[in-house]
Amino acid sequence: MNTVKWGILGKITVTLPFRPDKGTPELRVEGKSGASTQSFDPVNVYALQAAYISDLILAGNKSNPFVERSLGQMRTLDRLYAACEWVNRE
């Protein structure tokens, strides 16, 4: 799956934006002056997130804006599911 964003000056394409562990992620920028592609090493973003949270906990941090934002997003999704009367079948 690729994510493509167009603008008045060109286009940016990101391959594997959500699962960069499933291959070689790339960033391609195309514009009036040409195109360039940069490749990145595959990485498990979920493992990086877990390590980040673990480091916060071990450092004694009680609050983190990323965690607070994630909790807010989860609460919003919960409200949306409830409003749609979706049932969690798991």
Beta content comes to 25-35%
- Rg, Cα atoms, Å: 18 Å
Distinct helical segment count: 2
Structural class: alpha+beta
The number of distinct structural domains comes to 2
What about the largest sheet? 4 strands, antiparallel
Mean pLDDT: 86
Tell me what the structure shows.
It contains 2 helices and 4 strands; from the N terminus they run E-E-E-E-H-H. It has 90 residues and is of the alpha+beta class. It folds into 2 domains: 2-39, no CATH class; 45-83, no CATH class. The two termini are 27 Å apart. The model has no long low-confidence stretch (mean pLDDT 86).
Quick structural summary:
The chain is built from two helices and four strands. It has 90 residues and is α+β, with helices and mostly antiparallel strands. It folds into two domains: 2-39, no CATH class; 45-83, no CATH class.
Topology:
Elements (H helix, E strand, L loop, with lengths): L1 E5 L3 E6 L10 E6 L2 E6 L5 H14 L6 H19 L7
Antiparallel strand pairs: 1-2, 2-3, 3-4
List keywords for this structure.
90 residues; alpha+beta; 2 domains; four-stranded antiparallel β-sheet; 2 helices; 26% strand
